[in-house]
Design goal:
4-stranded mixed β-sheet; alpha+beta; Glutaredoxin; single chain
């Protein structure tokens, strides 16, 4: 993380903390036996954190949300590194079982929820398609977006823009075939890609040339019960960080 990004995060997250905006929409969890409680560590502007928040929201899971204060470098504390040696967010701790990758956390939450079969079905072919699109997001679309528009790191070269546009065309084709990104219904892959594609709104990237993707984006937002508070608030914060980064360059 560059010094510029660190400064921007300090400013933005201090504002978040003072406003109390980091509280997820799901009701505050009641105390549960240790064997049942799931701890999720997050910060609102992070796209991977937003996908976890949306997944928990869709599943109706009552979890213990733990805000990681990057301004105090809480992600580098020994107790956090025991949970996630990568010192990144999000992270999960379920009675000693830990995960530090957002899409793995998505799958775990769905697999442990009575409603999980609706967005992560047991059918092996459907799961394979879902995982294909999760890998498409983490391996292609998300990093190509960051290559162009990453806070303090993006390079909007013609080559980077062309790669990102090509990946959006691929996503358009998948949605054209399925109606959703992986199957004929919403899955965790849609929530993963929803967190990524909405970043285009934050940077002013016009996706109207991808009509099926535009249509999917609208209906995916509606499928998340508390979209504004699980995703839009964090997206707005990310947008503020991005714009502040442009002003500093």
């Amino acid at each position: 993380m560059s010094r510029t990004v660190q400064i921007l995060l300090v400013v933005a997250l201090a504002a978040v903390e003072s406003q109390g905006w980091w509280v997820p929409p799901c009701k505050r969890p009641t105390q549960k036996p240790k064997s049942e409680k799931i701890d999720l560590y997050y910060i609102p502007p992070s796209p991977p954190c937003r996908m976890i928040m949306m997944t928990a929201d869709v599943l109706g899971i009552d979890v213990n949300w733990i805000y990681v204060d990057l301004t105090k470098q809480e992600q580098l504390k020994p107790e956090y590194l025991k949970i996630n040696p990568q010192h990144t967010v999000p992270a999960m701790n379920h009675s000693g079982f830990t995960l530090g990758e957002s899409r793995a956390i998505q799958a775990y939450l769905a697999s442990n929820s009575p409603k999980g079969g609706t967005i992560y079905p047991n059918d092996i072919k459907k799961r394979a398609k879902i995982e294909e699109m999760l890998y498409f997001d983490v391996g292609r679309l998300y990093p190509q977006f960051l290559a162009c528009y990453g806070i303090g790191t993006g390079n909007q070269s013609d080559a980077n823009k062309a790669k990102f546009a090509e990946s959006l065309s691929m996503l358009e084709e998948y949605i054209t075939r399925n109606g959703w990104v992986a199957t004929n219904q919403m899955t965790i892959a849609d929530l993963s890609l929803l967190a990524t594609v909405t970043l285009t709104e934050a940077v002013g990237y016009d996706i109207s040339g991808y009509p099926k993707t535009t249509e999917w984006l609208a209906k995916a937002k509606l499928a998340v019960p508390h979209y504004n508070t699980t995703s839009q608030t964090g997206l707005d914060l990310w947008k503020g960080l991005y714009q502040a980064g442009l002003q500093r360059n």
